[in-house]
## 1
Amino acid sequence: MVIKTAEFVKSSDRWQDCPEPTMPEYAFIGRSNVGKSSLINALMNHKYLAKTSGTPGKTQLINHFVINESWFLTDLPGYGYARVSKSMRRDFEKLITNYILNRKNLVNLFILIDSRHTPQAIDIEFIEWCGENSIPFSIVFTKADKLKPTVIAKNVEHYKSELLKTWEDLPEVYVTSAEKKTGGEGILDFITKTNEF
Ligand code: GTP
Ligand code: MG
């Protein structure tokens, strides 16, 4: 897919305030600081479209962008950010889960996982929750530039075997680096294939 236009539409703090669901939508989610906003910028070939930060908890609202005037791309707040109060964490979780459960035009959720880590309970729980609620998703490993390819491959296999304990089939899996701009084509091809417009 060639990205001709990528425009910010709005930030919302409730799913009810998101733009009218007039086009297919693809959202990026994952733990705080996993690299959601950076990956969006790399995919869109745009340095500053989504705001990024070295400090976790940067994205706190639901951010909508329109790509090629034909589909929505959504940057979501991270889950599991330890340094905010419990009630704030619950508010974030409610915002995210309400958005996912109610957004009628959501075609796919890209769940981002840091490729450096062993399977984390919070990610596995979130993936299970998606399964229980029949939410279509793919898994995207991030920050692949930080480790040797052999180590990445081992970590990805470890993750897959963890998921295969409860899942019969695995969804699409992508290995990416926003820094080196690698692995994004697979994601854009998937969007082209599933985008009805
Ligand atoms: P929140 O909005 O806080 O939930 O974070 P986020 O998931 O949007 O992460 P963000 O894109 O802001 O990136 C967090 C940090 O990781 C920043 O310091 C980025 O520069 C860094 N980062 C993101 N992607 C990569 C990558 O592919 N490689 C490397 N080396 N660093 C990355
Ligand atoms: Mg962000």
Note: Residues 113 and 120 are 9 Å apart (CA to CA).
## 2
Amino acid sequence: QKRRDFIKISSLSAAGLIFGAQQLRSAIPPYSQTELGDFGPLSSQRTPTYCEVCFWKCAGWVYKNQEGAIQKVVGNDNDSNCNGRLCPRGTGGVGMYYDEDRLKNPLIRVKGKDGKQTFREASWDEALDVVAKGLQKVKEEHGAECTALLTHGSGGHYFGTLLKAFGSTNIAAPSYAQCRGPREVGFIATFGEGLNSPEPTDIRDTRCLVLIGSHLGENMHNGQVQEMSDAIDKGASIITVDPRFSTVASKSKFWLPIKPATDIALLLTWIHEIIENEWYDKDYVERYTYGLDLLKAHVKNYTPEWAYGITTIKPEVIRETAREMANAAPSVIIHPGRHVTWYGDDTQRLRAVAILNALLGSWGRRGGFYVPEKASVPSYPHPEFPKPQRTWRDAMGGKYKLADLALASGVCDATIPSPDLNCSIKAWIVNGTNLIMTLPDQRKTIEAIQNLDFMVVVDTMPMEITGYADVVLPECTYLERWDDLRVVQGREPNIALRMPAAEPKYNTKPAYWMAKKLADKMGLGDYFAWNSMEEMLDWQLKEVGSSLEEMKRIGVKNLPREYGALYFRDGEEIEFNTNTGKIELYSTALAAEGFDPMPKYTPHMEPPAGYYHLNYGRAPQHTFSRTSNNPNLTDLMDENTLWVNPKVAKEWGLKNGQPVYLENQDGVVSDFPIKVRVTERTRFDSVYMVHGFGHANKKLSRAFGKGASDSQLITRVLVDPIMGGTGMRGNFVTFRFEKESEVKS
Ligand code: MGD
Ligand code: SF4
């Protein structure tokens, strides 16, 4: 008997809710993307916000119609993340507010006399009581360190404060170990600092942009895409390395359709070419870097001919592209990418990217990487957090010491009892992350959840994760709430305000309200000493020379730079935050931890006969799994398709539009079929799909059963030994024409 049955929120026993939902549905104005252009007269009043549809956080204005209904979100002209223009997802963000499938009331898991588990609607007071007591019980029985927060998005700050006040620092975000962690560690090992978000890539002034598996354009990070398009107009050359002919590949001077899993070989060969031909920036390298001779010896044998056999990229193309970068230097960017957890050697691959940038002298240079600044906005005063007796690191057995954030996958590991742990994690707060679709190896995630004493999920939608919760707390959308100030780095330090454009729909509440109420119930109220968000924000804003009143008017405030110029000055002495004070081509920190101080190429597994690399990526209309039920965005794209090379399609007799199931190397078959799209744009050894589809929760009326889920098929996880990132690209799939083949699993 499983401790936690998955509960479809639709199977609520409370008939009143179903009736209520239908009533509300009919009250919603008919609303679709096609009608988006026809707003009728808008009210002249607008309220500032920043977008939560992805984590680029563009600042915008929310407009209502004359009846007071939210109609439109547009970009804020003064915001450098968006320059007045939102991307299609950001514009469609209004659909999150109007989605009639939203969570509407707090829910508590109950067991009926027949043993059947269901959710029962509860008042906020009762639901928060259950959460406070659930956490307190774990504290009494096991210690506060046995609780964890898994979070993505703005509410995480408030629950993080609550958890730290409670006595635990196990705060993990999938945006680290499932996304950009390896690049942060790789860049810290090289330059002594990470990239953060938005990445300080000076794309607008670049002369050469190299994209390695980072498909800007499909991966719609607004300001970056705008800058790329401007750079192309100004004649910058783009080099795209991707097994798939992505949209940006079509705009590129060079497309290198690399054999999957061989990127490090190409990068090492580029390094070899640049060193052997003395194309590196001699002054810069001499002044700022450590380890050139060691690196030169290390890459000696990595010739283009050697790489050809591995990557399938012709030697002359490797030479020509290396020269292209060198000619543009220092205004060249080997882009670090964002979702970089591929094959488990990701920190080393990103080290190679960092080294290449260092050799070409692009770090700190115009058209390369600028020196970002971020406003320092103080936190509202609160007592010191208690020091936890154990942290997530203790559960890691000394591994991943270079990780600087808790790992979501590590929290899963630490939740499954093992003889090495003196106590496993017993309670999770899950905020704004759909872990079932987000962490690889679903069976393990579910096993971890089954081992919990208590799990509370804070979400706006009935996603897969909510079905496993003991308590579900429905958050209102970003359009209906106050939130923390957006404080992000940029060419100029800047802050942006989010305020509610409308009252929360249904019985939903903002995360800050939930965390503060919980703190009161748990005797931790001092950590949330403000009376209202307005009071707290006004205090913070006055500390940086603004005010709530001003920010309501302007939405975004750009502040003057405080710490120096945007680029290194000629001959400037700089001390980097590494052991040697230099940019480390040879990493002393990695060597000290017993890892390769310079990246090496190691071959990865090849697909067995009849199987193909499972490649996945993004679409400009969607963000992960969070948008796949959004009424506006499903109008633009409502399912994913499977890109299949014509040669493969012929071998299998596949036709365009034909639905197929996929089975992976471990016998896992996709829950739902996916339609084939026959295209030359993917290599014969890989298939490709957009991540985030194939939802299994029926309550998502538009997303349920649409397309296939890549997450479900990712059962082999290649863990990065340096920082614990979960490499997800080592999975292979084959085609199945009927669901019966599932018996194998
Ligand atoms: P989503 O799947 O979009 O992203 O993983 P997640 O952060 O889990 O789930 C977001 C959840 O937040 C949804 O349940 C949504 O309903 C909820 N939500 C949306 N808005 C709000 C809000 O305002 N408040 C609250 N409380 N909840 C909200 C992303 C992660 O996934 C990342 S960053 C990457 S890069 C990885 N990408 C990736 C991949 O490409 N393929 C596979 N297979 N796995 C991946 N995992 C990683
Ligand atoms: Fe929103 Fe698009 Fe900006 Fe992301 S890039 S924050 S989805 S407008």
Note: Residues 10-38, 741-745 have pLDDT under 50 and may be disordered.
